[in-house]
Amino acid sequence: MKSTKLVSLVSFAVVASVASNSILAASHGKDDDIELYGEIEVRSVNREAKDLDTFVDKARMGLKGAHVLNNMSGTKARWQIEYNLPVNSNALSSTDTGSVSLRKANVSLQGDFGEFIFGRQNNILADTKKIDTFKNDSGTFLFTPDRVGNAISYVTPTMGGFHGYIQLATDTQPTVDNDSEVDATIFGINYSDDTFYFGISRFDSDNEYPATELGVTSLGFSVSFGDFSVFGTYQDEEDDTQTYGLGVGLSMNDWTFKTGVNGFKSDNDGPASTIFKGSVVAPDGNDDEGNAVFFLAEYALGKGVSTFAQYVYYDDDAEDETFGGSAFSVGIAADISRTLM
């Protein structure tokens, strides 16, 4: 318990220190841009054959900034540090003493040459996961992590709406020595304009990251027609497993409505190597498949605060593969963003 409290205290001190230094840096000129941001979301989920569960799904706080470099003409340095705060570990206590975890910590150099990013950062492939836009259970069948650590990335300049990228994750398990200098490689190309996005990406890892060898090709798209939008994702894992998703959205004043289907099909009858975002499916020699259908309504209350209701339905095949069950949820969320000057 003492060590957990110490970790939380040290982590908070780091955030406070960075915030103080950032405020001082921001006062040195107009070229600096510092933002304090965060997110809180509370949900109540009534899942089939489960007790009603009310919990904090998100409690995050971060700082990010951009500074023009005096000694590197035409180049900006960007940085970001983001924490996941402890939630739900001791609901009957006056305080929550769970561990603080680090989501992102990175520094980048951006200029006419593109951008180099160093540290714990978003998996750029995640841009293709357009179906992962719902609340609880969103993207449950999708492959690959949403963030990567020990990473170095390069993103090309945008030309005619296109840009490419490559990410390398190295020594992801420092206590384990193996022959691979690079444990995971991610590369791809995206196109986007005001109404259309398309991306294709490839993820390859050895058996140290993430705990098994994995090769995934991921495609995603989104297109908007005024207040109406269509979005989708298709992923192919080289051991004969495919995931797919297709959804539509409609925005009306302060309301947003979305519905979509996310599913998977696997012909894999070899070793267990099919790792989804939320679960592991151990192939049993039979064809495995399943689908989930989502219905979501969100209402913007103003000032970054919103509320929502969602229903997700799992078919019998998905439940047979231990996914689900179907669930109705309601929640409220607040997005925090403040420029520090």
TrEMBL record:
Membrane-related topology note: Multi-pass membrane protein
Record flagged with keyword Transport: yes
GO molecular function, one term: porin activity
Protein name: Porin
CDD domains recorded: gram_neg_porins (cd00342)
InterPro entries (UniProt xref): Gram-neg_bact_OMP (IPR050298), Gram_neg_porin_domain (IPR033900), Porin_dom_sf (IPR023614)
Record's subcellular location: Cell outer membrane
Signal sequence extent: 1-25
Main location: membrane
One Pfam family matching this protein: Porin_4
GO annotation, biological process: monoatomic ion transport
Alphabetically ordered keywords of this record: Cell outer membrane, Ion transport, Membrane, Porin, Signal, Transmembrane, Transmembrane beta strand, Transport
Cellular-component GO terms for this entry: cell outer membrane; pore complex
The keyword Ion transport belongs to this UniProt entry's keyword annotation: yes
UniProt cross-references to SUPFAM superfamilies, sorted A to Z: Porins
Superkingdom of origin: Bacteria
PANTHER family: MAJOR OUTER MEMBRANE PROTEIN P.IA (PTHR34501:SF9), PROTEIN YDDL-RELATED (PTHR34501)
Subunit structure: Homotrimer.
Organismal lineage: Bacteria, Pseudomonadati, Pseudomonadota, Gammaproteobacteria, Oceanospirillales
Domain annotation Porin: ranges: 14-318
